[in-house]
Automatic annotation (TrEMBL):
Protein name (database record): Phosphoglycolate phosphatase
Originating gene: gph
Record-level Gene Ontology MF annotations: metal ion binding; phosphoglycolate phosphatase activity
Lineage of producing organism: Bacteria, Pseudomonadati, Pseudomonadota, Alphaproteobacteria, Rhodobacterales
Alphabetically ordered keywords of this record: Carbohydrate metabolism, Hydrolase, Magnesium, Metal-binding
UniProt key word Magnesium: yes
Single biological process term from Gene Ontology: carbohydrate metabolic process
Active site: D13
Length: 229
């Protein structure tokens, strides 16, 4: 098992992990659909489409709305003009800000690895005053590859000073994309169960799981203790 000694690098997913961004994504999707005289989708529908990046989101929206696949490029372009600064409805999950501060105070290098494009990722981190906590931010358009390919997560760990081939760190996420990415990268995965996953946690790769961020520092220390044994 790949283990680390505290303070080890900790990399986080964004949507469905640190933030509940589904309401803003839903509103932005529906704004584009309205412009195209298409009936809106529900919040639950759009939440189920999140995780694989904007292109996959819109492939799923197009299928659900019965739109022509060849409209994909124009719909994505229209979406992105609104998505870059969509922060009004997004919220941090409870205890996120406090826990990130605790981890930073304990010396853990912190990073973000998300399939969300980099510009809206940075806009949200700035909106919530979190920018200074993260020494590495990898977005869905930072590299040619996206999660679950291990390349983005390896890049995040490398930017935090870890060996990208064998990063001794932890990844925290909520979705099947995150679990598979952690497994492909061979790092322990801490699963936040209140996010956007579609599978039962028992069916997903994970080292430990939690539903309240207040539990996370203890989980990270537990894995540091295991590493020392």
């Amino acid at each position: 098992m790949n283990v680390c000694l505290a303070p080890c690098p900790v990399v986080f997913d964004l949507d469905g992990t640190l933030i509940d961004s589904a309401p803003d994504i839903h509103a932005t999707v529906n704004a584009v659909l309205r412009l195209n005289h298409v009936a809106p989708l529900t919040l639950d529908q759009v939440r189920g489409f999140i995780g694989g990046g904007v292109d996959l989101l819109w492939k799923r929206v197009i299928a659900a709305a019965g739109l022509a696949p060849e409209a994909h490029r124009d719909l994505v372009a229209s979406f992105m003009t609104r998505y870059h600064d969509a922060t009004a409805l997004t919220r941090l999950y409870p205890n996120v800000a406090e826990v990130l501060g605790t981890l930073a105070d304990r010396g853990h290098p912190l990073g973000v690895c998300t399939n969300k494009p980099l510009r809206p990722t940075r806009a949200l981190l700035e909106h919530f005053g979190l920018t200074g906590l993260f020494s590495a931010v990898i977005g869905g358009d930072s590299l040619p590859q996206r999660k679950p390919d291990p390349a983005p997560l390896r890049a995040a760990f490398a930017a935090l000073g870890a060996d990208p081939a064998k990063p001794l760190g932890l990844y925290v996420g909520d979705s099947e994309f995150d679990a598979e990415c952690a497994q492909n990268t061979a790092v322990p995965f801490l699963l936040f169960t209140r996010g956007y996953r579609k599978s039962d946690p028992s069916e997903m790769y994970h080292t430990a799981r939690f539903d309240d961020f207040a539990e996370l520092p203890g989980l990270i220390e537990d894995h540091a203790e295991i590493a020392r044994a």
